[in-house]
Design a protein that fits this description.
This protein is 38% helix and 19% strand. The chain has six helices and six strands. The strands form two sheets. Strands 1-2-3-4 form a four-stranded parallel beta sheet, with helices on both faces. It has a two-stranded antiparallel sheet with strand order 5-6. A hairpin with a 2-residue loop joins strand 5 and strand 6. Helix 2 packs across helix 3. The protein is globular, with a radius of gyration of 15 Å. The two termini are 25 Å apart.
């Protein structure tokens, strides 16, 4: 697992985080759970996870508990990975350290430098306000964990 590789390196601090976008965000979310530990055959825990517009449905449909603090960042207008699923997940996993930030006018891929467009039947593209807020929200999340 990537965690074990990084943890073994002398040049890496004790804080190891996982971050992903879209499909990678779903993996980051899974990596912060007991199911991720089972799949990786490791008891290692990331210091935290940041998931930008993940599909929250998988986590909703299994009993995996979060073992790492997790921040989900998603757009309200995301029609590819709906914020409604992440809201449901947040309601279930808030006590396990899940934080959810929903950006009102943002589509999928709100942090990428691409114009708003239709792609494979879904809307996506940059929302500057959501991009800037997501960076601030991420730094606050990371700093809170590091300062513990």
């Amino acid at each position: 697992m990537a965690y074990d590789y990084l943890a073994a390196r002398a040049d890496i601090s004790e804080h190891i985080f996982v971050l992903g976008q879209s499909n990678g965000a779903s993996v980051a979310l899974l990596s912060a759970s007991t199911e991720g530990q089972r799949l990786a055959a490791s008891e290692s825990r990331f210091s935290g996870a940041i998931a930008l517009y993940p599909w929250c449905g998988y986590m909703l449909n299994n009993n995996a508990r979060l073992v790492s603090p997790t921040l989900v960042l998603i757009g309200e207008k995301d029609d590819w990975t709906p914020a409604s699923l992440c809201r449901q997940l947040s309601g279930q996993r808030q006590q396990q350290g899940l934080e959810l930030k929903v950006y009102a006018e943002a589509y999928h891929s709100f942090d990428l430098n691409i114009p708003i467009q239709a792609y494979k039947g879904h809307m996506l593209g940059r929302n500057q306000a959501a991009f800037e807020e997501s960076r601030k929200d991420s730094l606050v999340f990371l700093e809170a964990i590091i300062k513990k």
